[in-house]
Amino acid sequence: MTHGKDQGTDGLGTPLTGQVPSPGGTGSTERRAFGLPGVPALLLFLGVAALIAVLVAVGVAWLGILLGVALMFCLGGFFIVQPNQASVITLFGRYVGTERRNGFFWTNPFTTRNRLSLRIRNFNSERLKVNDAGGNPIEIAAVIVWRVVDTARATFDVEDYAQFVAIQAETALRHLAAQFHYDDPEAGGRSLRGNPDEVAQALAQELALRLQHAGVEVLEARLSHLAYAPEIAGAMLQRQQASAILAARQIIVQGAVGMVEMALAQLSDRNIVDLDEERKAQMVSNLLVVLTSERGTQPVVNAGSLY
């Protein structure tokens, strides 16, 4: 998902309150680690092993033993980096770099190497019961697509970056729900149900700010569940049904008035019958009853005169 340039708004000009400030230069920064290609290093050590065998054969066993011990120790510097993984390397408690290249490498055997996945992950939040901007209790959940982009921050700046993502996602979701109404409160207003793209953009931007500390990038954030809380769901359903009925009746009445107007105009233009104002009013009343009635009407045929 593409984020807006203004990290301080929800993409529609509304400030995001309660944001976590950017860590700036206070956090750890990933850098490339020192690592030699593993195959040339292995060939070099095989040559050293052959030299040890020669030294032992010519009678310089003590030197061969020393080289053998050193060789065995150096073999502990080999490590493998799998695709979409990284190896975070520390030396005596000091961060020395991250190896992101895939393959077989050798580095200082005194170092400690911790694997960290760079794969894209999904986080499905729990259904949260929160209040929307109007104070109505609702149930909301989201799915977050994310990945680690700074291994140093993910390893050293937070205790558990996966748990950090989960907690911050829940916090951002609660804050987002309080900014929007469930439904449009008025014409042209924004709502959780009526503006899914704007809501997703606002959620992704706020998560991006909060997750900078963990070196995590938010690729997409979408609502996966949205509903009224059970205690008000029935009342809200009746309100929605009433709104739908009123909207439908409004369309029916507008269409009926247009049809009555068209009928009177055609009767007058074609000189079919000349009606006075009283008869026009009666005709309009009858036509409106027929056109707007929810059930079929039973006509009464007048076989006599109009008067």
TrEMBL record:
Keyword Membrane set for record: yes
Region (Disordered): 1-29
The keyword Flavoprotein appears for this protein: no
Gene3D superfamilies in the cross-refs: Band 7 domain (3.30.479.30)
Keyword list, A-Z: Membrane, Transmembrane, Transmembrane helix
Transmembrane segments: 34-55, 61-81
CDD domains linked: SPFH_like_u2 (cd03402)
Residue span, Band domain: 76-240
Name of the protein this chain belongs to: Membrane protein
Source organism of this protein record: Deinococcus aquiradiocola
